[in-house]
């Protein structure tokens, strides 16, 4: 290299597809200065990366800052567009030949093939916590062979990427109190023990499980928003009490536990084991415990009067179902919650009432537009 000014990275040399690549540890404060991403305005066919999704970056940055002793980042992959050379530490054995120093011309450009959101989040995190600057992140360096090759690398790196299921993420999340409580209930509650699918977020027709761990997690998050989970023991006791009452007031849940019905039969014919209803029941639980004037058992007693059948179209179509299929979005959760609260005699919040009014108005309009029989 002709340039006197260079970057020097302690690195390990490897071979993939007959080409050399290098792995090094890069201080975070150096990473954000060297690795830039300024082609957001370029058309996608002229970029080597997807455009930066700026809404993802603050969440990742907060994760780093909030867990300075416990965060984990995978390697960033980058291509070097410029002069570079690798000098092994020696040639006496294979290890010396593989380890050495990667020297890169300071005029070279580093193109991030994978990890642009991590790089942007690190930059934001350093603004909030500069002390993180000396921590390191692994970087895998490839030699740049043009736009076409960089685009192919991006496609290959993301071709087989599979996001873990929501249930598995909850199962392995030891930082979230809601996740811990969901796992605890799945193992200790008479209502849920043995009926929770711990790994998958959807259930096959033949599955013997009645609920998914992710659905239970959604329900708990609705029941205990914000800081309500700080007293974990109190939240656990309340959850055990609430779901025991609910579980014994839904006959089909009892029948599955007693072996009188299969989980598949219940999921096929009823809506109450689906995520949307569990989430709605979690929200109902939060409101029920806020009603200090009545005992929780007396509040929930009318649950057994609810017709949870999928054939009960007049009640659930548009609330929990669309066209006969379960439909889980925030509005459906609210509308399902509203119906349960109506039966239990619980007052709707202003937000819930607004959603309810809009739903009833739309239903009335649709009915009035239908031709007379």
Description:
46% of the residues lie in helices and 16% in strands. The protein is an alpha+beta fold and 373 residues long. Strands 4-5-1-2-7-3-6 form a 7-stranded mixed sheet. The chain has a two-stranded parallel ribbon with strand order 8-9. A hairpin with a 2-residue loop joins strand 1 and strand 2. Helix 7 crosses helix 9, helix 12 packs across helix 15 and helix 15 packs across helix 16. The protein is elongated, with a radius of gyration of 28 Å. The protein starts with 5 loop residues before the first strand and ends with a helix. The model has no long low-confidence stretch (mean pLDDT 90).
Instruction: Work out the number of β strands.
Output: 11
Oligomeric state of the chains? Answer: single chain
Give, in spatial order, the strands making up the sheet with the most strands: 4-5-1-2-7-3-6
The assigned structural class equals alpha+beta
Give the integer mean of the pLDDT values: 90
Tally of individual helices: 16
Tell me the helix content.
40-55%
Q: How many domains, in number, for the residues? A: 2
Helix and strand arrangement:
Blueprint: E1 6-16, E2 19-27, H1 28-34, H2 57-66, E3 76-81, E4 84-88, H3 94-98, E5 99-105, E6 109-114, H4 116-128, E7 136-143, H5 147-159, H6 166-172, H7 177-188, E8 196-197, E9 211-212, H8 213-223, H9 232-249, H10 251-257, H11 263-269, H12 275-290, H13 296-300, H14 313-316, E10 321-322, E11 325-326, H15 330-344, H16 350-369
């Amino acid at each position: 290299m002709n340039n006197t000014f260079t970057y020097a990275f302690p690195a390990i040399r490897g071979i993939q597809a007959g080409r050399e690549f290098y792995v090094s540890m890069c201080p975070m404060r150096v990473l954000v200065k060297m690795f830039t991403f300024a082609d957001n305005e370029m058309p996608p066919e002229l970029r080597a990366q997807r455009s930066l999704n700026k809404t993802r970056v603050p969440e990742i940055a907060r994760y780093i800052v909030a867990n300075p002793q416990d965060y984990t980042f995978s390697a960033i992959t980058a291509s070097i567009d410029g002069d570079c050379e690798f000098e092994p530490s020696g040639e006496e054995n294979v290890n010396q030949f593989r380890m050495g120093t990667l020297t890169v011309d300071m005029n070279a450009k580093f193109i991030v093939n994978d990890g642009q959101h991590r790089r942007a989040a690190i930059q934001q995190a350093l603004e909030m916590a500069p002390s993180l600057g000396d921590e390191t992140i692994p970087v895998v360096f490839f030699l740049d062979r043009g736009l076409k090759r960089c685009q192919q690398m991006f496609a290959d790196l993301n071709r087989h990427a599979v996001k873990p299921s929501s249930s598995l993420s909850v199962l392995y999340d030891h930082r979230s109190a809601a996740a811990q409580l969901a796992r605890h209930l799945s193992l200790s509650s008479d209502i849920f023990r043995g009926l929770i699918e711990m790994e998958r977020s959807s259930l096959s027709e033949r599955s013997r499980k009645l609920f998914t761990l992710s659905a239970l997690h959604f329900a708990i998050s609705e029941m205990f928003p914000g800081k309500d989970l700080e007293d974990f023991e109190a939240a656990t006791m309340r959850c055990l009490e609430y779901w025991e009452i609910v579980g014994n007031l839904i006959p089909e849940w009892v029948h599955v536990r007693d072996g009188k019905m299969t989980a598949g039969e219940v999921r096929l014919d009823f809506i109450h084991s689906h995520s949307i209803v569990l989430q709605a029941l979690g929200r109902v639980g939060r409101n029920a415990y806020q009603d200090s004037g009545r005992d929780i058992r007396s509040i929930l007693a009318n649950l057994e009067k609810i017709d949870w059948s999928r054939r009960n179209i007049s009640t659930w179509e548009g609330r929990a179902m669309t066209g006969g299929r379960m439909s889980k979005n925030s509005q459906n959760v609210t509308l399902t919650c509203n119906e349960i609260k109506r039966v239990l005699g619980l007052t709707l919040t202003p937000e819930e009432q607004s959603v309810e009014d809009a739903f009833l108005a739309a239903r009335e309009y649709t009915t009035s537009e239908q031709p007379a029989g």
